[in-house]
Design brief:
single chain, alpha/beta, six-stranded parallel β-sheet, 10 helices
């Protein structure tokens, strides 16, 4: 038996997403077949098309999503048929040393995340003409159905809208955790967020619930600066240079306790100027994807080291999804995290390229595909 599905495939760098008829096999041991309801249009998937950080191509895109379990393989006990689930870009096996000490974002099962292949080297997606296709992030949520390992799904309660669950699975938890976990924002702190798309805006929300006194949102797009104020930013700037004076005045020249970089495409020469927004002992949090070919960072080394500043790399917001997502939903239910407002565009699968065009134009905080 097999399941027919329509999926958005990136065949090669520079070629737009193409909707392709595919089939998926029945779940093997430890696998789950999910019927997608929503998928998030994250910038990370677009890196396959632009070539900034491509996976092994061709690939079915998508790593943010929520849907319903329609079949399970032998031994699956985390979820059951009929369960609403989020798909997690990083697995949580619960058995490796990193999961055991609370750093589930470093789970050893993440080793194959960019290969697109199953454990035995085969691929879940097969086109109608017999070509095997990988799944981006081992998920492939730009598809009506997808087949994933059970350690990459998490059940959620149905009072959470499916579109909110979809964007929470990566964008929200990454941005929220960047403020709450990585930047360690506390009552009265000053934070700068550089780049206010879906992840950056989630960092703003995380800083609000953590009690930040000042939140400076930096983005060249006027729409995003306006939205940032609605999400809780206290000040905005169109550039890092403009933010310098604002932060200096707000802190009596002490500068910010932390800065989080959440731009769509990171370059090494961005980090130095951002580091100058941060006070002695402060945190510079890097939550962005750089082109795979870049390996150079421009940083004022003496100033940085002698000021005891911290440069922190981030994956999944340094969160523990199985626990932290419940905290996020508790705040959402209490009206303290306006996650619905993150979703500013809804598209059909066939309109995925228009969705990404809107992202590049700065028209969306987070677009979603509705299946």
């Amino acid at each position: 038996m097999s399941t027919r599905t329509r999926a958005a495939v990136c065949w090669e760098v520079g070629r737009p997403w193409e909707i392709v008829d595919c089939t998926l096999p029945d779940p093997r041991a430890g696998e789950v077949l999910v019927k997608l309801e929503y998928a998030g249009l994250c910038h990370s998937d677009d890196h396959n098309v632009t070539g900034d950080f491509p996976a092994n191509l061709p690939v079915v895109g998508g790593h943010e999503g929520a849907g319903v379990v329609v079949a399970v393989g032998e031994g699956v006990d985390r979820v059951a048929v009929g369960d609403p689930v989020m798909l997690l870009p990083l697995p949580t096996c619960g058995a490796c040393r990193y999961c055991a000490d609370g750093r589930t974002y470093l789970c050893d099962k993440n080793l194959d995340v960019m290969t697109g292949a199953r454990a035995d080297g085969t691929f879940a997606f097969t086109t109608s003409d017999g070509r095997d296709i990988g799944a981006y992030g081992q998920l492939g949520t730009f598809s009506e159905y997808t087949l994933v390992q059970e350690i990459r799904v998490q059940r959620y309660e149905r009072d959470i809208p499916a579109q909110v669950a979809a964007v929470t699975s990566c964008g929200v938890i990454t941005g929220y955790g960047s403020a709450v976990r990585a930047a360690d924002i506390r009552d009265g702190d000053t934070l700068v967020v550089v780049g206010t798309g879906g992840i950056g805006m989630s960092a703003v929300m995380g800083a609000v619930v953590s009690g930040a006194a000042n939140i400076v949102a930096v983005d060249p797009v006027a729409f995003k600066r306006e939205q940032a104020l609605k999400f809780g930013a206290t000040h905005t700037a169109a550039s890092v240079e403009e933010a310098q004076g604002i932060v200096s005045e707000l802190t009596r020249n002490r500068m910010a306790d932390a800065a989080i970089i959440t731009v769509g495409v990171l370059h090494g020469d961005m980090i130095g100027p951002v580091s100058r927004l941060v006070s002695k002992g402060g945190n510079v949090v890097v939550t962005a994807v750089a082109p795979a070919t870049e390996d150079t960072v421009t940083l004022p080394l003496v100033e940085f080291a002698m000021s005891a500043k911290n440069l922190i790399g981030v994956v999944m917001g340094l969160t523990r999804p199985l626990a932290d997502i419940e905290r996020i939903y508790a705040l959402y239910r209490a009206g303290r995290l306006p996650l619905d407002d993150l979703i500013t565009g809804t598209y059909k699968l066939d309109d995925i390229n228009r969705g990404y065009e809107d992202m590049h134009k700065g028209l969306n905080l987070r677009g979603v595909i509705a299946f």
